[in-house]
Amino acid sequence: MSGAAPGPGSGSSPAACRFAHYFVLCGIDADSGLEPDELAGENFDQSPLRRTFKSKVLAHYPENIEWNPFDQDAVNMLCMPKGLSFRTQTDNKDPQFHSFIITREDGSRTYGFVLTFYEEVTSKQICTAMQTLYQMHNAEHYSSVYASSSCSMDSLASSTDEGDTTSLLKLQRYNSYDISRDTLYVSKSICLITPLPFMQACKKFLIQLYKAVTSQQPPPLPLESYIHNILYEVPLPPPGRSLKFYGVYEPVICQRPGPNELPLSDYPLREAFELLGLENLVQVFTCVLLEMQILLYSQDYQRLMTVAEGITTLLFPFQWQHVYVPILPASLLHFLDAPVPYLMGLQSKEGTDRSKLELPQEANLCFVDIDNHFIELPEEFPQFPNKVDFIQELSEVLLQFGIPPEGSLHCSESATKLKNLVLKDLVNDKKNGNVSTHNISMYELLKGNETIARLQALAKRTGVTVEKMDLSASLSEKEKDLKLQCEEAELRDYQLNVQLREVFANRFTQMFADYEAFVIQTAQDMESWLTNREQMQNFDKASFLSDQPEPYLPFLSRFIETQMFATFIDNKIMSQWEEKDSLLRVFDSRIEKIRLYNVRAPTLRTSIYQKCSTLKEAGELFRQRLSAVDIVAPEPHDFCAERQVDTQSIEQRLMKMDHTAIHPHLLDMKIGQGKYEQGFFPKLQSDVLATGPTNNNRWVSRSATAQRRKDRLRQHSEHIGLDNDLREKYMQEARSLGKNLRQPKLSDLSPAVIAQTNCKFVEGLLKECRMKTKRMLVEKMGHEAVELGHGEANITGLEENTLIASLCDLLERIWSHGLQIKQGKSALWSHLIQFQDREEKQEHLAESPVALGPERRKSDSGVMLPTLRVSLIQDMRHIQNMSEIKTDVGRARAWIRLSLEKKLLSQHLKQLLSNQPLTKKLYKRYAFLRCEEEREQFLYHLLSLNAVDYFCFTSVFTTIMIPYRSVIIPIKKLSNAIITSNPWICVSGELGDTGVMQIPKNLLEMTFECQNLGKLTTVQIGHDNSGLLAKWLVDCVMVRNEITGHTYRFPCGRWLGKGIDDGSLERILIGELMTSVADEDLVKQCRTPPQQKSPTSARRLSITSLTGKTTKPNAGQIQEGIGEAVNNIVKHFHKPEKERGSLTVLLCGENGLVVALEQVFHHGFKSARIFHKNVFIWDFIEKAVAYFETTDQILDNEDDVLIQKSSCKTFCHYVNAINTAPRNIGKDGKFQILVCLGTRDRLLPQWIPLLAECPAITRMYEESALLRDRMTVNSLIRILQTIQDFTIVLEGSLIKGVDV
């Protein structure tokens, strides 16, 4: 907080101790007269009374404070954001209260509290100027009405009806000011600027000052006495204490939470919930947590502040880290262009609706229309965990206090009106337009009001009877009752605040109860940590997420990427070396409490909703602290009894400090000063307000000694610690890491400052891009991740999705920065569309050259896939053809995902930006996209993403139709060029398959369209063996996704045909993703392992060929291969479900289980040809089956024999089912199916010993064969037993038609 920093004041009091820093008076400068406020926008078409004019800071006291310099422009802008406004005696002139906040560049805050009221204009010059403006305006308006009505006969009728009657009557009735008849009033503001948000106390003090000005009696002391008192003699209450100081008429009490309580929040959450409704508020709260751009919109400044402060208060233990401007003056509208997360409030002009509001960027915007109870959320918006239960718990709290959870606009208005009634003293004074003295019952006054029932119930408890209440009763009694009612309502607001905040805090305590376990603390000392901060991983995100319940993940995976979470973790690490951050201290103590209650070690989190259990005690603390100071009217009433709990002990605690400030007293003023004139704020005597009293004050001297002690400590720590300046620099850099905290400077709006601000934005965007791309690479490639202590590198699908979503947000923000004119919600898509239009026009004029993709893929047969054109426009058309996407923001995101998957994102964006005339037309000079050097670096960072494979388009748009192209490549040297049979193909992927598709005869290439298959896994290829030339030697099959360009190669290298090879008419091929030639260099550096593929043709041709040229693997290598294959399957099941690759590859791929077992069965297999015919493993299997079936009866009758019997039975059953399946699978294909089924049904470990003991083994295997070695067989069984714990689901293409 600002104000907490020590430093000498202009008076003698230290900074940390003052309740208020400045008193400010803003209004009209009589000397400069009426100046239109250009900054507030052109409004000359409005009548002069509705226009805005320049206001000015008329006075502020003291002149300046070293630790909080006075910023005149900012204060003037925020005290009167609309500038001056004028009224006549017929208008409503109720005083209006609002507050504001000034956030400095370092993030510290100062609060302002403003009461704006109307004062009669006494300057003849200004009244005359207003009259002249009116005459000019009316003349102009009449002429425009008649000019438009004389256009044509048709329009004449309508304009006479509408134009003449309504416009002209309105002109006469409202838009008139006559100097001889009307009294002119102008707005004036009084303001207190304080270091802490004591809103209620400041509001009461300012209202009492205003009453003193409008009252018929002069105040007891000159106003200077009260202002001097609050500026110099009222201390800040220490944490956990209450303070009583004196206004003009009555004391004001405020309290400050203790060090172990939730931080101070004086804005009534009741109003925020009434204004937005519970459901909407939780949604906006979620947007704030995810650091989106939040724009609040309302006619009322105080509503903007109430909602902004309310929501940021509920973030505990986190803090909003980005641009925070709850009231954005009209002159700063260009700041909505900021390409950073922000929370801003914009004042809506009367009568303007949302559609007329031009916002530079809306892709990531949460728009909150407070007055109309309406919010617009960004797309792809995750829900807050346990949202339904959370809302239910909050509704219960709200209902206890009589607040409807759906919110109520009227509620809060009537409550405010009632308060205004009370506060204005109900003085019978026609100039202020207050209630006249004739009798009127309070019930009549509020009849038809929604809150009346609640107020009646409230009033009954206070002993006030509403029905018979008479406004002409004696002022003191009436004041007393209404005051009680107000104080009771205020106390209830306080209690509600505490209870609601407790429920929100409890959610975070439950969600992050174990966060400490995942904080990575590697640095030895603070200096080394701060210097390496950017390279460090501070939080083990992957482990944290794997520990969370599934429903929480969409929200949590995005939340732990935010700046507020990063800062929270940084503060945790910093607490090793320096005093704990106050929010962190409170949060950690709450987690400790939970641990004590639950006595549990960090365990797997549960998604069962746990309600807040601390509501009662939290409310009690509050009540005690408030009841200890005499907040109720002097004589106690019955309803106070329950609040006097433990009053004495609290009072004793409060007695330890002078919790009552010095009374206001007469100052040494010149004679004739402080003169009272009713209805006018006096000209204050500046010399008495410029400085504080001499140092005779107890709290000043006490804090001065404390200050000296702090200074000594600081000097000591400087000697032993880092050089302070250097340390501060490190601290600032570390804390601002990844943060673009660039608050708008409200004071200086010169073009140079705006340019400098935008320069900072450009730097920030580039830094963010560098960090995001680096993070995406580290997560995906894993090499650096392992070095950073991540353990085994892996990225969850969820985490990848989160990172890509945040890249999409970043690109949208970059494309929204410095836009000339906004078109559509997505700036990026709008730019792409305009680029497309220009390119298509040029294409019609001349065939434009298109960038070619990787060169044609050739094989030894000369057949190839035609080249896929690389075209930005083509990719856009693919997206435009997707009927599933309905919005521009969605299209832009889909296009980014597609370009990323195709490794063309950087290239496409470079092409888009190469059209410089278009970029210049769309963007202002300062825009990111027009800063050449930064733009080049940005494209370079995006280019680095080409080093890894993303499937972020394929895996997200699972239901779209995709065109595929397939090519079958035969080995022509050995095979017939033409075959007479009818070939067919079936392509399968992770999301489904195409079904069997006939290939047109002698056409090796075909295109087909089907629903997204995901990553391709297998191809089944076969033919019907008809005709004379029915034997076919296929080298491989290539299949390409025509949208993403991913090409898969399915190696075969085997014959298809009866009487050749293993007699197979169909084969199942396992795919491998091909890398384009351009990527190969990058892939060499990349650590992502290549995908496995079908076993090579050399290995599969036949057993006899193995004896020939290829070297056979030895027994050790074969056993290693089995271990590795099984190990890969075990690892597969230990990964989270969404991260697992294809199980088919692990079973049937190049290093899969089937291949490893084939190696075992091949070892020592007798290779002699019997009658010149190849012998296959399947021949051995069939011999074993024949033996089991014939020797069934001979077995002895023992227990283990029974088991053996059933194993034999199932083995024979499975082999026969495969043999009789209506498929033309060859012998090697049948062995593959047997292994897959045996693995699925956990039967392999039972079958291996049967085969090892079968008599056929001695005939078909040499003595040295692995299968004839008992120890090897036993170890093989043990290895295979390790995969029995997993549920294996086989891809349909592997076992189609086999009925077991």
UniProtKB/TrEMBL annotation:
Region annotation (Disordered) ranges: 1087-1117
Subcellular location: Membrane
One Gene Ontology CC term in the entry: membrane
PLAT domain mapped to chain residues: 962-1070
Domain RUN: 798-958, 1144-1293
Molecular function GO labels: guanyl-nucleotide exchange factor activity; small GTPase binding
Pfam families: dDENN (PF03455), DENN (PF02141), PLAT (PF01477), RUN (PF02759), uDENN (PF03456)
PROSITE patterns: DENN, PLAT, RUN
InterPro entries: cDENN_dom (IPR001194), dDENN_dom (IPR005112), DEN5A/B (IPR047278), DENN_C (IPR043153), PLAT/LH2_dom (IPR001024), PLAT/LH2_dom_sf (IPR036392), PLAT_RAB6IP1 (IPR047277), RUN1_DENND5B (IPR047293)
SMART domains in the cross-refs: dDENN, DENN, RUN, uDENN
Domain UDENN: 37-579
Composition bias type Polar residues, residue spans: 1088-1117
UniProt keyword terms in alphabetical order: Guanine-nucleotide releasing factor, Membrane, Phosphoprotein, Repeat
UniProt similarity note: Belongs to the RAB6IP1 family.
Protein name: Denn domain-containing protein 5b
